[in-house]
Design a protein that fits this description.
The protein has about 575 residues and is α/β, with parallel strands linked by helices. Helices cover about 40% and strands about 15% of the residues. The strands form three sheets. Strands 2-1-3-4-6-5 form a six-stranded parallel β-sheet, sandwiched between helices. Helix 10 packs parallel to helix 13 (about 310-320) and helix 23 packs antiparallel against helix 24 (about 555-565).
Length: about 575
């Protein structure tokens, strides 16, 4: 019996390496899920498709292997949008099967009809519709290949009636994967070598493009005696066991990385897509190296641009640049970083107050050396990036490019399924967790041993910070939260709440030791500010204006708490 389109697609995706497919069954998707259950691809049923999109993105990001999502027509596929936009911007190879109403009804405003192509083409590497059975294997193979090669989301739109059709003939199209180098010519390196050989204060600014070039970047830093500042997406491979690293710059960073970038004479940007122009140096010569020519000079004007892989280009530069024996600049940046790191690790002097940094450092102490961490967008993400130590086998993930709420535990769900023998910790804000809380039931139903910690400050704290530095009173940010530990227990997870600093370490040990899904609800200081590496005069004035407004509005106690929490810490 000949295979139908659904069966051909599943076969092609399985051969491309897909192991799991996330979604909710029903309607135009039923023949696809029927084909799935006959294959080796596992179906992961979720309670909300957005969670499925995040989970597939988390799995694919950490494995760099293909993950799948599948949605029914109209609302089913639309629910994936936010999760898959995040996955795409994170560079996760995911294929979405977006089923559609019957082909003959398209264009008639049939119930649940949605023109999906314009929506998904905004953030995808491939988005096409299969309209005949002869296209099935070819289009599916090309979608998977695009997702893997270009590191992004590929979308296949398939009318429900086409799913059941069988092709009259088909060629054996398959997905191919490639490993290649991109080394610039000797002539292309000359302007960069000339600038680097001038000496002075040289800083390397490492981005996510350094992922497979750690050894080459550190070797070049050694030759130049250059501090390495890194973007948040380079943390996993640039921070650990690196004698030249000085941390991040930007809002999430600390003084070491900030001054290393802002005060250098030459900035060498490696695979870096850092978007915030106010943190670039004003007078330095800037050299940018990237495998993608369209990235050169995209974020900030540069003096020298080189197209090449970071691994190959750093290796080539190390062979031709002159060695620098001046260490004063490097040592200065390192001292700043060490001092700022210590300063930012706030400890409670009040048994009734748990600072979020303190909670993060406690998790870091007790977590495994090969643990995975995810964090919700906002202040929780800052605490993870600053205070969770990286290690050779530790990995972190957040929504740094898309900046969405509610990403942490859905991403971690997919990571945990892909790595069942390893510890996976989701660091959630109270607002983020409550936005997509329904899929805690998925953890219970499938016994996924994910560990969730809630930074419970009863507010949208990062939004409050934004309002305060604008000189505004914080409004509409208060959250009336339940005891999330009790909620977790009611849903079938292990759950506990911590309100006292003295209870923290014991609770974390118990939480991490639990064999199944577990949630730890920790009440943290609601007045903690995320202090950037450089505080602008305008921000000081605006925060003072907020304080004055708060006092005049009868909120003097909040101002006192704010000052004690952030400016009288020691």
């Amino acid at each position: 019996m000949s295979a139908n389109v659904a069966e051909i697609m599943v076969d092609t995706l399985q051969k491309a390496g897909a192991k799991r497919c996330y979604g909710i069954v029903g309607d135009t998707l039923n023949h696809f899920t029927d084909a799935l259950q006959k294959s080796d691809i596992a179906w992961v049923g979720v309670r909300h498709e957005e969670v499925g999109g995040f989970a597939a993105g988390g799995e694919a990001y950490m494995t760099q292997e293909l993950a799948l999502c599948a949605g029914s027509c109209g609302p089913g596929s639309l629910h994936f949008v936010n999760g898959l936009f995040d996955a795409h911007r994170n560079g996760s190879p995911v294929v979405l099967i977006a089923s559609q109403i019957s082909l003959g009804e398209v264009g008639s405003q049939f119930p649940q009809e949605v023109d999906q192509a314009p929506i998904f083409k905004q953030y995808s590497v491939f988005c096409e519709t299969i309209v005949s059975p002869e296209q099935a294997r070819r289009m599916t193979a090309h979608a998977a290949q695009a997702a893997l090669a270009k590191r992004g989301v590929a979308v296949l739109i398939v009318p429900g009636d086409v799913m059941t059709q069988t092709p009259e003939n088909q060629l054996d199209y398959r997905t191919h994967q490639f490993s290649y180098s991109l080394r610039p010519s000797a002539e292309a390196l000359v302007p960069a070598v000339t600038q680097l050989n001038k000496g002075g204060n040289i800083t390397i600014f490492a981005g996510s493009g350094c992922e497979d070039a750690r050894e080459q970047v550190i070797a070049l830093a050694e030759k130049l005696q250059a501090p390495i500042a890194w973007t948040s997406r380079a943390k996993d491979f640039m921070e650990y066991d690196n004698p030249y690293q000085v941390g991040m710059t930007g809002v999430y960073g600390l003084e070491g990385g900030y001054h290393a970038v802002a005060e250098c004479d030459t900035l060498l940007m490696l695979g870096c897509n850092f978007a915030f122009t106010q943190f670039y140096p004003e007078r330095a010569s800037i050299i940018q190296i990237d495998h993608d020519p369209t990235q050169i000079g995209k974020r900030y004007p540069v003096d020298v641009g080189i197209v090449g892989s970071i691994r190959d280009t750093c290796e080539a530069l190390s062979q031709v640049v002159e060695a620098n024996d001046r260490t004063r600049w490097l040592e200065k940046c390192q001292k700043r970083y060490a001092k700022s790191l210590e300063k930012s690790a706030n400890k409670s002097q009040d048994a009734d107050v748990i600072h979020p940094q303190e909670l993060t450092l406690a998790i870091d102490r007790h977590a495994a050396d090969n643990a995975f961490f995810t964090a919700d967008t906002g202040s929780v993400n800052v605490w993870m990036l600053r205070h969770i130590r990286s290690a050779e086998q530790r990995r972190t993930l957040s929504s740094l490019q898309h900046g969405t709420m509610a990403n942490a535990y859905p991403q971690a769900l997919g990571v945990q399924l892909a790595h069942p023998g390893r510890q996976v910790i989701a660091m959630c804000g109270d607002g983020g967790l409550s936005m997509l809380m329904g899929d805690l039931l998925t953890l219970v139903q499938q016994q996924i041993p994910l560990k969730i910690v809630v930074y419970n400050n009863s507010s949208l704290s990062f939004v409050e910070l934004e309002q305060k530095v604008e000189g505004l009173l914080d409004v509409y940010t208060e959250l009336e939260n339940p005891d999330f530990g009790e909620v977790a227990r009611a849903m079938g997870l292990w759950g506990q709440r911590v309100e006292q600093e003295s209870e923290l370490d014991a609770a974390i040990r118990q939480w991490l030791a639990h064999p199944g899904p577990a949630l730890l609800d920790v009440v943290v200081n609601p007045m903690e500010l995320v202090m950037p590496p450089k505080v602008e005069a305008g921000q000081v004035a605006s925060t003072a204006l907020y304080s004055a407004k708060a006092v005049l509005s009868g909120r003097m106690d909040e101002v006192v708490h704010l000052v004690k929490s952030n400016f009288l810490k020691r």
